[in-house]
Amino acid sequence: ETLAVGALNQTIVSPRDILHAIKHHPVAFIILAHNHPSGDPQPSPEDLALTQRLHKSCTLLGVELLDHVIVAHDKHYSCKEHHHL
């Protein structure tokens, strides 16, 4: 489900926005993904902060955040693989 569409270098989304989407679709797990049009999949400090806030919010609701994946051209960055979850 698309939750936000941003400008060239940013978008604003919060854990509340993300978790609101599951209100009508009860789930046990979620995977968050977004793209970096720049071609560099390295997470920004804001990406990592959102991952941590979302992880805490999910835990409170009994939903497991399996991963936050950043896609950029032919590369990706997995927050789980890099121990950010």
Give a written overview of the molecule.
- It contains two helices and three strands, in the order αβαββ.
- The two termini are 22 Å apart.
- The chain has 85 residues and is of the alpha+beta class.
- The mean pLDDT is 86.
- Strands 1-2-3 form a three-stranded mixed sheet, with helices on one face.
Attribute tags:
2 helices, 85 residues, alpha+beta, single chain
- The overall pLDDT, averaged over residues, is 86
Helix proportion: 25-40%
Low-pLDDT stretches: none
Q: Using the alpha-carbon principal axes, give the shape.
A: globular
- Cα-based radius of gyration, to the nearest Å: 13 Å
Number of strands: 3
By DSSP (H or I, 4+ residues per run), the number of helices equals 2
Main beta-sheet annotation: 3 strands, mixed
Structural class: alpha+beta
Percentage of residues in DSSP E strands: 15-25%
SSE layout:
Blueprint: H1 15-20, E1 29-35, H2 45-61, E2 64-72, E3 75-78
Parallel strand pairs: 1-2
Antiparallel strand pairs: 2-3
Task: State the gist of this model.
By secondary structure, the chain is of the alpha+beta class. It has helices at residues 15-20, 45-61, and strands spanning 29-35, 64-72, 75-78.
